[in-house]
Predict the 3D structure of the following.
Amino acid sequence: MDKVIISDTSCLIALTKIGKLDLLRDLYQEIVISTDVYQEFGSTLPNWILIREHKNKVTQQELEKRLDKGESSAIALAMESDNSILIIDEIKGRKIARSLNVEIIGTIGIILLANKKGLINDVIGTMLQLTNMGFRLSDKLIQMIVEKYDNK
């Protein structure tokens, strides 16, 4: 059974800004988002990004005490979807998702996976594009990536 790939807003925005949103389609064929994520994104999305709603609104309301609407709805949707992976970047949201046994990956994880599958060659250049567009990465993560991918 294929994984259901659910995304928060940050990955969609970041990849759109650098012209690489199609990496998600190339890796997963389709992505599922909530209405709240769609509204946060604020623009038309390709037809391979599906909008689906979670049923348990109480879960989202509880999560919204600590996270924004998009992250809360994405986590709630992932909790209701069997065999799912949630694309989420914000540290607080990642910790909460993990504590709820939701499998996660972030935008950088998507970039690294795309590199592994031969979809992109320049990990460092792609990472620089992201940071130049306002995507925040820790110095530690940047250093790890540079050490691993420099001269490749």
Remarks:
- The chain has a mean pLDDT of 92.
- The longest helix spans residues 69-80.
- The CA atoms of residues 8 and 144 lie 24 Å apart.
